[in-house]
Amino acid sequence: MTVDVQYYVLLSMAVFCIGLFGVLTRRNALLFLMSVELMLNAANINLIAFSFYHGNLTGQLFALFTMALAAAEVAVGLGIILVLYRNFRDVDVTVPTTMRW
Known about the structure:
Blueprint: H1 5-25, H2 29-54, H3 58-88
Helix pairs in contact: 1-2, 2-3
């Protein structure tokens, strides 16, 4: 007994919508990064579900690459957040208007 693909797609859609809501409404940089991670995980759920559905490993391989990309994104994002906190004493993404051109 296996779970149908549409349930994975619905789960992925729900996780992606939660992440998108977090990206659009949060002003804290850490919560912003967590929301982006949710969106990447939703994409991974889709990749793995369709890989299982079609019986090949291509989607799982792409999911591994996406996880590596997420790890690099977190490393760069945390570096940016540390500089943001060091310069402005806050992690609110609307504060550093002096960093614009």
